[in-house]
Amino acid sequence: MNEKKSKSSNLHQNHRARVRETFRKAGVDGMPDHNLLELLLFYSIPRKDTNEIAHRLIETFGSLNGVFDASYERLAEVEGVGESSALLLSLVPGICRRYIEGMTDKKKINLSTAEAVNDYLVKKYYGCKTEVFYMLCLDGVGNLINCCKLGEGSSGTVVVDKRTMLETALRNHADKIIFAHNHPNGIAVPSKADLELTYEFASILTPVGIRLSDHFIIAGDEALSLASIEKFSYLFI
C-alpha cells in the first residue's frame, strides 16, 4: 500500500516538474489554456491533480477568460477549487490591470482622439467586476492631467457626488473633462440615468469654464463614445 502511494506521489511530482519545464522553455504562448491554469493552481493546491480541476473550470466558464472574469463566489463553488484557489484566480485580472497601468506614464498620455481614449479606458477597466465611475481631467490640448475615481458600486448603483466632481475638476486645473463608467454585466448602451447625469454634470462644469468633452461607456472590450453619436450631442453643452 505504501509502495503504491509512493509511486503515485512520484508520478504526480514528475508531472508537475514537466509542466513547469514546459513553461520555462516555451512560455505562455507555448502552452494550451488548461495547462496554464493547471500551472497556476499548483500554488494554491499543492497535493492534488490540478489538471482535472483546470479542465473543469474551463468547461464551467467556457474559456480561460471566462474563468478569470468569474466572481470569487462562483469560482469557489466549482468542485476542487476551494477558497485559496478562488482567491488566487480572482487576483489575476486586477494584477494584470495594475501591471498595464504601471507601464504607462500618465504625463505622456494624450487623449485628444476618441480612439486614444477608447484604448486607455478599455485597459483601465480590464477585469473590473463592479461598476466604476472615472473622471479624466485633461489640459487644453488633451493631455491627461489625472484620472480620478469618483464612485464604485454594484452594477447600476454607483453614486457620484456632484460637489466632489466639481471640486476634483477644479483642484486638477482641468480644461476639459471626460467621464467614463462601465457596465460589467451588460452592453455599452447608455441608460436614461446615464444621459441625465451627463447633462447635469455638463451644466455644472460649463459655468466655471470647464468643457465636458465626452462620456464613455465600457463593456468588456467595447467602448461607446456618447459625443460621437449625433443624437447625444445636446449633452455636451
How would the blueprint of this fold be written?
Elements: H1 2-26, H2 33-41, H3 50-61, H4 64-69, H5 72-77, H6 82-102, H7 114-124, E1 131-138, E2 144-153, H8 162-171, E3 176-182, H9 192-205, E4 211-219, E5 222-225
Helix pairs in contact: 2-3
Into which percent range does the helicity of residues fall? 40-55%
Structural class: alpha+beta
Q: What sort of overall outline do the alpha carbons produce when their principal axes are compared?
A: elongated
Radius of gyration: 23 Å
Low-confidence stretches: none
Alpha-carbon distance between the two ends: 79 Å
Q: Output the CATH class name of the largest domain.
A: Alpha Beta
Describe the biggest sheet?
Answer: 5 strands, mixed
| Corresponding CATH superfamily of the largest domain | Cytidine Deaminase, domain 2
Tell me the number of helical segments per DSSP (H or I, 4 or more residues long): 9
- Classify the fold: give the CATH topology of the largest domain: Cytidine Deaminase, domain 2
What is the H-and-E element order? HHHHHHHEEHEHEE
